[in-house]
Amino acid sequence: MRRLSLKLGTLAAATLLAFTAAPAGSAQATAPAKAAANAVYFNLRDIQGSDFTLMLNDPAKIKEAREIVRTGERKIVIGRIVKTTAAYNPQWDFHYNPDTVSFADMAIEVCDATVRYTNDHLDEAGGAFLPGLYWCPWTGRLTREVPAS
Asked: Who is most buried in 9, 17, 98, 112, counting CB within 10 A?
């Protein structure tokens, strides 16, 4: 049974990556370079009450995120994580690569985890846990825009 679960998880991860693929090699290399003056920050809060700040720099994604906050729409944030602390999110040891962030109505379970669980198991991320470093906290909701500091 475990073997079947692993195969299904791998298949699901491959499917997720196929539909949300970013340009090869860009996930970690471009995140710091994209911290441009046009960056906008949003708070994501999960079911455990953990707050996580994400940065967006694409005008279309910023507009979409603002609309999600304004309406309270229940969208799932999906994106690739980078295993380093970001200056705008110092309490966590990872952050989203803003170039990979998107919003969805549904996501596969293999990328779901709370903020704290992800941080506590970051050494496992990229393998069976969060394959491809894609993270989609199902219970996470954008709650507000965060002023740039």
From this structure: 98
Q: In the chain, what's the furthest Cα-to-Cα distance?
A: 50
Its pTM stands at 0.75
Token digits of residue 83: 């295993």
Question: What residues have CB less than 8 Å from 63, skipping those under 6 apart?
Answer: none
Task: Count structural domains, the chain.
Answer: 1
Q: What is the DSSP letter of 30?
A: S
pLDDT tens, residue by residue, 29-39: 444 444 557 89
Task: State the pLDDT at residue 6.
Answer: 39
Show the low-confidence residues of the chain (pLDDT under 50): 1-34
Q: Which parts of the chain are beta strand (E)?
A: 40-45, 51-56, 76-82, 95-96, 102-104, 125-126, 129-131, 134-135, 141-146
